Amino acid sequence: MAVQAYATVCLLFLILPSLVVLAMSFSSDPFLAFPPTSFSLQWYEEFFSDSSWINALGKSLMIALVSTALACVLGVLAAYGLDRSPTLASGLMPVLMTPVIVPIIVVAVALYGGFVNWGLIGTDAGLVLAHTLGGQLRGHYRQRHARRI
Fold first, then answer.
1. What is the pTM of this model?
2. Hey, what long-range contacts does 38-46 have (CB within 8 A, 24 or more apart)?
3. Which of 59, 69, 84, 135 has its CA 20 to 30 A from that of 129?
4. Cβ contacts of residue 27 below 8 Å, gap of 6+?
5. pLDDT (tens digit, 9 = 90+) per residue, 53-95?
């Protein structure tokens, strides 16, 4: 019972700020204010009527979908290969443990340096590769630290 209460408190702690921002987004005030003084859809109208926002949303969704697909495929292939080959698993385990040892900001700075050399800064391919790598690192980190119940 205590675990459920703790999980509920944690969930509320994570969700409530988003709900406050969502409520503020329906305000007719020129600046964000909580609680909203009146109801309006002006901010959504401005968002959906501006082509630069729509283009940014489309690019974000495209990068998210491609990165997710690549991360899933690479993760499944890596898991399959590591499960089938103990020698490969023992050789790659130090590399796979880097997310536990190296902070993600260090990985990001190193990735930036590599992307500068490869000419991937500011490209869609660079964003997809960075998000795919980030998904792999975070997924492996979560898997290694998952608590067994």
1. 0.70
2. none
3. 84
4. 33, 36, 37, 38, 39, 40, 43
5. 999 999 999 999 999 999 889 888 888 888 888 887 788 777 7
